[in-house]
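Action item from last meeting closed. Structure (412 res):
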């Protein structure tokens, strides 16, 4: 292929973007992961955009776009709509360039994201209960005030800015064979793939690019199979940062030409991936940023050679993190919640506790109730949460309870 793709930025344009973006964006660390390498059977590196300023790669595309505005456009200010990372990227970039920014965010947006956007100097307007509604309001604001609308992914300047991640990958891991990238609207992967594939054409070294979407919001997986941009019904997912219903126009053209494969992962696997990043890599990664790790853990990607997984962001509400850790522990069979029916007489709770203790299962929480559905008047029910060490230990705990005459039911 030539230096330019049919739709994407040229390698020279991405290099020019890097010259601008380098004024505000860090060259983020590239960390090796022995744990993931053992899973994959080949070297694995983590591109830590979760450690980027504002907590995600979004600052790159936002800043590159804003630097291209004319003096007249800057005077009118900019407007964007987002529930998180794009909002913070635009707000930060606007502050650095002395441009007034208005950000529309949905009602109920996570408080840390709302406060961070305001702290970067943007005027935040809460509008609608979903990003799509905020998007409509932002475009109406742009039409009525003359403010320049800054799209989250569907613009050449944004794509070129995100493509600077690809340039860093090439420099930090020169022998890279495969790059795994989260996909939402497609801004990051279209920029990264543009940089990688054009470099590959020059050097002759083939580099595979794999995109990952949440299974509940995977328009690229459908669109790539059909060969046409396809609108889907996006369902709720913990990976809300990549939950979109339709690919970007420009982005789909680039992805269709440059991306080798798109796979999907479920929420439980994503939660487990976030837990692995916490425990094994000591990294806080938001759900949208961890889907590439989930694809490795579930072995949806194979025979990749030296692999780079892009951790696209680390902005997560601590309360959501608490819930996701619990879900990740359950998905890894390290947290077991079960219900056990007991005769309503003294000593039964002690007996169950002794069984769990003998099985080395640490009890986290116990609820003792006489009001469970279907209980006889002479029965009570225990709801017990215990820490376990994996699938084998879970089965051991359940079997010991069964051997003692109990009938434990597992809550999922």
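Sequence:
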């Amino acid at each position: 292929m030539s230096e330019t793709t049919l739709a994407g930025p040229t390698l020279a344009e991405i290099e020019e973007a890097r010259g601008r973006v380098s004024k505000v964006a860090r060259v983020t660390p590239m960390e090796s992961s022995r744990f993931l390498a053992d899973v994959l059977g080949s070297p694995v590196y983590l591109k830590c955009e979760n450690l980027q300023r504002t907590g995600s790669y979004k600052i790159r595309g936002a800043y590159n776009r804003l630097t291209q505005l004319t003096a007249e456009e800057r005077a009118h200010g900019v407007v964007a709509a987002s529930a998180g990372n794009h909002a913070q990227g635009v707000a930060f970039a606007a502050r650095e360039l002395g441009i007034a920014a208005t950000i529309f965010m949905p009602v109920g947006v996570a408080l840390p994201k709302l406060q961070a956007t305001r702290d970067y100097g943007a005027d935040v307007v809460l509008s609608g209960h979903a990003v799509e509604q905020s998007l409509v309001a932002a475009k109406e604001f742009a039409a009525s005030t003359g403010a320049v609308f800054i799209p989250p992914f569907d613009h050449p300047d944004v794509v070129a800015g995100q493509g600077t991640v690809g340039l860093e990958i090439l420099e930090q891991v020169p022998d890279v064979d495969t790059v795994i990238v989260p996909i939402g609207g497609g801004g990051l992967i279209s920029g990264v793939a543009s940089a990688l594939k054009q470099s590959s054409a020059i050097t002759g070294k083939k580099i595979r690019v794999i995109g990952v979407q949440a299974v509940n919001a995977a328009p690229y997986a459908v669109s790539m199979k059909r060969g046409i941009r396809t609108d889907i019904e996006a369902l709720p997912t913990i990976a809300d940062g990549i939950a979109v219903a339709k690919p970007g126009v420009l982005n789909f053209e680039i992805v269709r030409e440059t991306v080798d494969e798109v796979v999907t992962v479920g929420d439980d696997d994503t939660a487990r991936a976030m837990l692995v990043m916490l425990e094994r890599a000591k990294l806080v990664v938001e759900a949208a940023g961890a889907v590439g790790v989930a694809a490795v853990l579930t072995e949806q990607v194979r025979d990749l050679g030296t692999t780079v997984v892009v951790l696209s962001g680390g902005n997560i509400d601590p309360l959501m993190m608490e819930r996701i850790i619990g879900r990740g522990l359950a998905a890894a069979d390290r947290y077991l919640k079960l219900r056990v029916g007991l005769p309503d007489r003294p000593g039964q709770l002690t007996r169950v506790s002794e069984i769990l203790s003998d099985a080395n299962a640490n009890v986290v929480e116990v609820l003792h109730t006489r009001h469970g559905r279907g209980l006889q008047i002479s029965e009570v029910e225990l709801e017990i949460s215990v820490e376990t060490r994996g699938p084998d230990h879970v089965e051991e705990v359940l079997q010991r309870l069964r051997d003692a005459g109990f009938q434990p039911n597992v809550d999922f």
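Note appended to the action item: Residues 1-5 have pLDDT under 50 and may be disordered.
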